[in-house]
Design a protein that fits this description.
Length: 240
């Protein structure tokens, strides 16, 4: 089937006669022929199946390991002892033992950790202790080793004693604050609710004298001795 159509001017090529100034009469038309496709396009069937050149998997042990006669035991042993560039050291050599010895690597790792721990322990006293001015220089380790270690021992002992003294003072200061708070609440009629006493019903109330002595840091007044009631002898089964 043949149809006629007029191509718009803007679709014509730039080198056409229309753009070169040549006028085309209006009666002249451009004919375009459309190909009719009544049947679907079918690709040609190949003569045989052509698999890809590189398969996804290769069979194991299908390729020969070497192109020659089988190796003898002496040749295999010689290959195992020979050192090849770019490969690990052969078995039986010192290099192979160095890289594969677990005991050696464990010793190196634990030794490095122990050295760093000891260094950190001593540097903590050398930089953070209030007695760091008494720390001996490292040069005394070779000149006067006895004095070096004894001085370090004294610094550590003084540091620990000072640390314990500060902790005791902080604890006593906290206890004094608690005692003064209880005495203040007792004098003003404020009854604190102890959750342990509320749950278990054990609440030992202290007298005002005891609270005052604890708040002021004085000794407790002596309690008057009261005669204990005579204990009755328990009877077995109510008869003995």
């Amino acid at each position: 089937m043949v149809t006629r159509a007029v191509i718009p001017r803007f679709l014509l090529p730039l080198q056409g006669p229309l753009w070169r100034g040549i006028r085309i009469p209006l009666s002249q038309n451009v004919h375009i022929r459309f190909v009719s496709t009544d049947k679907p396009i079918v690709l040609e069937k190949p003569a045989k199946f052509n698999p890809p050149s590189h398969g996804s998997r290769l069979k194991r042990n299908s390729m020969p390991k070497h192109y020659g006669p089988p190796l003898t035991e002496e040749e295999v042993a010689a290959q195992n002892k020979k050192s090849y560039p770019g490969l690990m050291a052969p078995q039986g050599s010192w290099t192979h033992w160095f890289w594969h010895s677990r005991l050696l690597h464990t010793f190196i790792t634990m030794g490095a950790l122990l050295a760093m721990g000891v260094y950190t322990f001593f540097m903590n006293y050398a930089y953070n202790s209030p007695f760091k001015d008494l720390v001996p220089p490292i040069s005394d380790l070779w000149q006067q080793p006895t004095y070096f270690f004894s001085q370090w021992k004294n610094v550590i002992l003084m540091h620990e004693k000072d640390k314990a003294r500060k902790a005791a003072e902080h604890r006593n200061r906290h206890l004094d604050d608690v005692a003064k708070r209880r005495y203040f609440m007792k004098m003003h009629g404020i009854e604190p609710m102890d959750p342990v006493a509320v749950v278990f019903g054990k609440n030992e109330e202290k007298s005002a004298e005891e609270l005052e002595a604890a708040a002021m840091g004085r000794e407790l007044p002596p309690k008057p001795e009261t005669e204990a009631p005579a204990e009755q002898k328990k009877k077995w089964l109510g008869f003995f």
